[in-house]
Structure formats: structure tokens, C-alpha cells
Design goal:
By secondary structure, the chain is an alpha/beta fold. It has one domain: NAD(P)-binding Rossmann-like Domain (Rossmann fold, 3-Layer(aba) Sandwich), CATH 3.40.50. It has 9 helices and 7 strands. Strands 3-2-1-4-5-6-7 form a 7-stranded parallel β-sheet, sandwiched between helices. About 40% of the residues are buried.
Length: about 250
């Protein structure tokens, strides 16, 4: 169960090598979180991440999880929940894709969509149902400001995040009153390995800043968290810009 400050004692991360997820896990472990499950494709990076959390005092375990292998999700994630209650699930996996390549190779675009949306719908529902059976817990979903309005530069990735965001909002409404809290996190450009070499967007942030915002959102039981907060105003304005004008903006 969570402590008086809203800190989960147990955490399941879907996307166990995500820099944002690991920054969040480190921050929570420094508070009170003691059991961490890192779910992801087996790799030295996944094992190294678990070892780092163990060094910080957590009982960190790894579980083989593939977002694209939806037929395995029920069994894989079900086993985690049989080990004990999970106070927080952080859905953090996703791929950015390559817009130019993905437009020319539709199967690559489909992989982006299946990972970011289909895989999230499958694993998100399974975890949500498990949390509902517990009667408590938080499901934190990493969305993106890219899902707020499709941009020419990354509409394939953006559309997958738009679907994820809408799904998470609806799931939060469906779980209202069950004891399960769903929080959607919308970071802007995050300086990470995923964005290395890309031109930095205005109001860029870091994995650590996103982790801090997630922790604050958990304490407040927020339903939506923008990182940085100023993006809420920026995107509200951009959402209403006429399309002919929007096409000409350097966004």
C-alpha cells in the first residue's frame, strides 16, 4: 500500500529500460518504494537497471515482456500480480520511429502504432483489471504532447500517442470510484537517448524532471500532468490554430 505521502511501496514498470521510468523508480526508491518489477525485453541493459536499483536498496526483479507480443501479456503480467499487490504501474514503453522511413515503409509505421498503442491497450487493460481486483493502485501512462495535435514532422508517432492518450483518459473514467487512479503524463521534448541527435524543441525537459512531476502528481492524485507545466498553455493555444496557419509554423 502507499504511505501517507502517496509513495508506492511496490512498482511495476512496463518498459524497464526507459530513462524516464528508471529516473522515476530511483526517485521513488529514495522515498519508500521497496519492490520494483522491471518488465522488458531481456537484455544486459535491463539487468543493469535492476542491479542499480538493488544498490539503492530495492528488491528489484526483471520479467521478460514484449509490447508487441500481446498474446503473452495476460500470462506474463498475471504472474507479477500473483506475487503480491502492486501499488503503481508505470506504462513507459514506446518507440519514436523514423518519420521519413516510416512513410515509405508502411510496415515500419505499423510497428510504431502496434508498440505505442496496441501493446499499451493490451497491457494497460490487464494491469488495470488487476489493480481493480486489488481495490487500490495507480496506473501512470507516459503519453506525449505530440499526441495533442498531429504535426507534419512526426504524425505517425503523434497519432499513436494521441490514441494512447485517449485510451488512458477513458480508462481513468471507467475506473473512477474503484480505488484505482489513472494519471496521464504528457512530457514535451525529453533529452534522452531516444532523442539524441535531434534538434531540441522549446521547453525541453529531462527524465529527472519528468520523474519529479510524476511523484508530485501521485501525491496530488492528478489525472493529467504536463512536463513542463507551461506546455499546457502552449498546446491549448496551438490546438486552436487554423490548419492553414498551423502548417506554416516551425513546430
Amino acid at each position: 500500500m502507499k504511505d501517507a505521502f502517496g509513495t508506492p511501496q511496490s512498482l511495476l514498470v512496463l518498459g524497464g529500460t526507459s530513462e524516464i521510468a528508471l529516473a522515476t523508480a530511483r526517485r521513488l526508491v529514495a522515498r519508500r518504494t521497496r519492490t520494483v518489477w522491471l518488465a522488458g525485453r531481456p537484455s544486459p541493459a535491463l539487468e543493469a537497471a535492476a542491479a542499480q536499483l538493488r544498490d539503492l536498496g530495492a528488491d528489484a526483479r526483471t520479467v521478460a515482456f514484449d509490447a508487441l507480443d500481446t498474446e503473452s501479456h495476460e500470462e506474463v503480467l498475471g504472474k507479477v500480480f500473483t506475487e503480491g499487490d502492486i501499488d503503481m504501474v508505470l506504462l513507459a514503453f514506446g518507440v519514436l520511429g523514423d518519420q521519413e522511413r516510416d512513410e515509405d515503409e508502411p510496415l515500419s509505421a505499423v510497428r510504431v502504432a502496434q508498440t505505442n498503442y496496441t501493446g499499451a491497450v493490451s497491457s494497460g487493460l490487464i494491469c488495470a483489471n488487476a489493480l481493480k481486483r486489488q481495490g487500490h493502485g495507480s496506473l501512470v501512462v507516459l503519453s506525449s504532447v505530440a499526441g495533442e495535435r498531429a504535426r507534419r514532422a512526426n504524425f505517425i508517432y503523434g497519432s499513436s500517442k494521441a490514441g494512447l492518450d485517449a485510451f488512458a483518459q477513458g480508462l481513468g473514467d471507467a475506473l473512477h470510484g474503484t480505488g484505482v487512479h489513472v494519471m496521464v503524463v504528457r512530457p514535451g521534448f525529453v533529452r534522452s537517448k531516444m532523442t539524441a541527435g535531434m534538434k531540441e524543441a522549446p521547453l525541453a525537459t529531462t527524465p529527472e524532471a519528468v520523474a519529479e512531476a510524476i511523484e508530485a502528481g501521485l501525491r496530488r492524485r492528478s489525472e493529467t500532468v504536463w512536463v513542463p507545466g507551461a506546455l499546457r498553455v502552449v498546446m491549448s493555444a496551438l490546438r486552436h490554430v487554423p490548419r492553414p496557419v498551423f502548417r506554416k509554423l516551425p513546430v
